[in-house]
Amino acid sequence: MYYKFSGFTQKLTGTAPPAAYSPQGLRPGVPAESPTMIFATPTKVVSEAGSTVEYLGGNRVPDLQRKFQTTDGIPVHLKRGVPDRLLYRTTMALTVGGALYCIVALYIAAQPSNK
Q1: Are 20 and 3 in contact (CB under 8 A)?
Q2: CB-based burial of residue 47 (10 Å sphere; 0-12 exposed, 13-18 middle, 19+ buried)?
Q3: Which residues neighbour 88 within 8 Å (Cβ) at sequence distance 6 or greater?
Q4: Which of 3, 44, 68, 84 could be a cystine partner for 12, CB 3.0 to 4.6 Å?
């Protein structure tokens, strides 16, 4: 005897073999027609793209490696000079200012209200 879960009664009920092998009314099968293409134009084949790639600028990696790997006592985050120092000092000022603001806000929030 074959059984199938009935969605209506929420119990197992007796059934025929084909219905038991296709649970919840799903029928196995192949779609009748192929699905439509999502994109109208096919993708570009690698051989069409060509083997040469042009970059917008020269390769600066060796120069930057040379600059950052020198042992001159300057921290890595300050090696590029004025822009790095400006960014570092701005970040530190915002961090200290934010911490002070949080402390003041907590102090004000801890005071009882005078009503």
Answers
A1: yes
A2: exposed
A3: 77, 78
A4: 3
Which DSSP letter does residue 46 get?
H
How many angstroms separate the CA atoms of 41 and 37, rounded? 9
In the DSSP assignment, the letter for residue 110 is: H
- The pTM (predicted TM-score) of the whole model is 0.44
With tokens 């009503």, the residue in question is 115
Beta-ladder partners of 12: 5
On whether the CB atoms of residues 52 and 60 are closer than 8 A, the answer is no
Distances (CA, A) of 59 to 3, 16, 78: 70, 72, 22
The number of angstroms, rounded, from the C-alpha of 38 to the middle of its chain's C-alpha atoms is: 24
Please report, rounded to a whole number, the percentage of residues in the chain having pLDDT higher than 90.
28
Tell me the per-residue pLDDT of 10-45, one tens digit each, with 9 for 90 and over: 888 888 777 666 655 555 566 667 767 676 665 655
- In three-state secondary structure terms, 15 is strand
